Amino acid sequence: EDPSLERHFKGHRDVVTSVDFSLNKKQLASGSMDSCLMIWSMRPQMRAYRFVGHKDAVMCVQFSPSGHLVASGSRDKTVRLWVPSVKGESTVFKAHTATVRSVHFSSDGQSLVTASDDKTVKVWTVHRQKFLFSLSQHINWVRCARFSPDGRLIVSASDDKTVKLWDKTSRECIHSFCEHGGFVNHVDFHPSGTCIAAAGTDNTVKVWDVRMNRLLQHYQGNAVVNSLSFHPSGNYLVTASNDSTLKILDLLEGRLLYTLHGHQGPATCVAFSRAGDLFASGGSDEQVMVWKTNFDAADYGDVLKTQKSGTSVDGTHHTLVEMDCGLHLKKTKTQDSGRNHVQREEETSLANTLEHIMGQLDVLTQTVSILEQRLTLTEDKLKECLENQQKIIQNKTS
């Protein structure tokens, strides 16, 4: 079955810049040049929340892994963390000196990486809301930065036409990919963490292996590619382009699978849901669209490690490095739909339990963060006491 348009959200008053699903798919966040952040409910007849706080265009939004927070970056040079509820409270992070174009949580939800027109990539702790360090080797605006799934690497894409790979611990740039012929708009890690995909103004999408630092795939389009998102199975990639289309690429076959027309004017952003059954897109037509994926990953090549041929940059055929995408669940097509139903119910209850655990973890982290703050205060007080004591002793001896 082909992907199909499922929902249509109207409410933004300017270009939609960014979209992201919450873990449970109950909510969808979007950012826009209208300076607002919207949280749409995926349940029918539920009203959307409009969060106002940024003083200028919102360039990027992302839900935390647990779904209890939303981060946004803006042209007002700040990053905000929102609680996606009726009140819409938020806290502000300030350290960038220009537009913030990208926000991304690490998979444990503890860190945030941001990218800015001030040419830096910055890393923050989420719960202490503290700026940790900057990565500054780009020589032009940085459009996008992402953590690897294991949180050890960071990848960044810039208008200096490079994609840089960083080691989070040593804070060093391990490699620069310089094959793009234009600005690099977007970059992300494959779910396995072994590859990255980057989209550029040279109308291409390039996929690199980050272990060998070599180009695996190259897709040539006929319009600027603004955004991309990997399907959680790791087998597909969806892109959003200036020619108003969304394209679904089959990474195993190394070919274009679908071209979707929905937006009037450039498609600016796109993202798969955490389960991969939906994807959302935003455009300069001020609309947010939600699509049903429909193609069932399990029906396509079950054996991921089969070597497929794809077309390389020079048009010749070459063998792709096996995309080892971790676990690949093969759904058995049984006539016995009853069993499938039970299986589905079990999956749902498991998902709910996981969601509950994530919520509990969030509460714990918040508590720890409060304790840490208290501890810091106590340490400061203690230091003060000791200093005072020293002074008293010095005064006595002098």
TrEMBL record:
It comes from the Eukaryota. CDD domains: WD40. InterPro entries: WD40/YVTN_repeat-like_dom_sf, WD40_PAC1, WD40_repeat_CS, WD40_repeat_dom_sf, WD40_rpt, WDR55/POC1. PROSITE patterns: WD_REPEATS_1, WD_REPEATS_2, WD_REPEATS_REGION. One of its GO terms (biological process) is multicellular organismal-level homeostasis. WD repeats lie at residues 9-50, 51-82, 93-134, 135-176, 177-218, 225-259, 260-292. One of its GO terms (cellular component) is centriole. Keywords: Coiled coil, Repeat, WD repeat. May play an important role in centriole assembly and/or stability and ciliogenesis. Belongs to the WD repeat POC1 family. This is POC1 centriolar protein homolog A. The gene is Poc1a.
